[in-house]
Amino acid sequence: MSGNRNVIAGVSVSHVNASVDEIERVGGDSVRETVRDLLAREGVDEAFALRTCNRAEAYVVTDDAATGRRALDDFAPDVRAGAVVDLDHEEAIRHLMRVAAGLESLVVGEDQIIGQFRTALEEARSVGGVGPTLDEALTKALRVGERARSETAINEGVVSLGSAAVRLAERHLDLTEATALVVGAGEMGLLTARALDAAGVSRILVANRTVPHAEHVARDVTCSASAVGLDALPAAVSAVDLVVSATASPDYVIDDATLVDAAETLLIDIAQPRDIDPVTTTIEGVIVHDIDALEAVTDETHEKRQAAAERVEEMIDAEFAHLMERFKRNRADEAIGAMYESAERMKQSEVETALRKLESQGELTEEQRETVGALADTIVNQLLAAPTKSLREAAAEDDWSTIQTAMQLFDPDFGGEPPALPGSETPDSIPEDADVPQHVVDRLTDD
Fold first, then answer.
1. In the annotation, is 53 catalytic?
2. Is 105 annotated as a binding residue?
3. Residue range 35-85, pLDDT digits in tens
4. Start-end ranges of CATH 3.40.50.720 in the chain?
5. Is 187 annotated as a binding residue?
6. Rounded distance, CA 374 to CA 368, Å?
7. Top EC class per UniProt (predicted)?
8. Which entry of 23, 26, 53, 233 is annotated as an active-site residue?
């Protein structure tokens, strides 16, 4: 749809093509700050951003695709080209639906993305980033995500990075004999603690900067659990077999000094940006895995959910087709509206002239005046019915020369650019089908 007004342009850096390091290098600003920055750029009318453990994405709405691409050019300046995916209007809308449905997640169908998506939408709204174009696309994406989980089995089995981390840990340890440390008391930390509890871990320590939050997570599980502050990490790590770290810290939480007294310890880092300093991989007896290492675990889940994923794909296809039909119909509506407004002005002028001439020959009754008006309305509707149909067909086929010609013919203020998306609604009285002389349609569609 390039070349049209009110189009979406997007950019995505995710686990699909990028490493953890590359995702980390995509700016550390909050969603709110990213949206503010995008809105300040030339030509940007709307903006949205999404940041999760395994993706960083941004979307803008501009008058044309080229302006959108320029606004997003420096979103991921330090990431290799192969890891950055540019999305045009239709690709962006479909991609947002896939993200919300969990089809683009590292753990296919995971539930956490819905909450992250909804929070990002609220953040973007709070700084004025979401207008009519993004509102419809993002709301539709959330609806698809909710339907995917309520109508299919896409979220059965491993449903979060936390549970994937636990599955990976089970390949190294007998969790029923192990003590685990969860670093971080946010949503990911809570999900990890629950997954460890369900796996039968012997004991859980929860470490967090705010100890009461860690205590809340510890109370949520049924196994023996206790909470400590981050200042107690070195002692806590030395007392456990497994560490799963999932904070939102911009800096490393665990480094070589933290592990100075650690014996044989398995550490799994599911934070973004990473919690565990890569230098720890050189410490004897310490095994460190990051998000990239979860691929093998999540691949198994993906295979099990393939049938559900295919059903969700069909759901997305149907919702996407419906949305595109509405968008394309709306693109023609501005031209149709201009056509009817121009005809209405001409009709009113000619009717008034005709009535004056008739009244000069004798006073007209109200019924006679209504008859003249009705005749004029009928002529206008019959003449414009076929061009209306042609314009809607042109929009469906992305035939912008036809729509531009219509705008030039009927809108004196039109500057030669395609109509806006979405445009004004067409009057309900416009006939859908009519047969008029071919030269009228020829004139309308003549380039």
1. yes
2. yes
3. 999 999 999 999 999 998 789 999 999 988 899 999 999 999 889 988 999
4. 161-294
5. yes
6. 10
7. oxidoreductase
8. 53
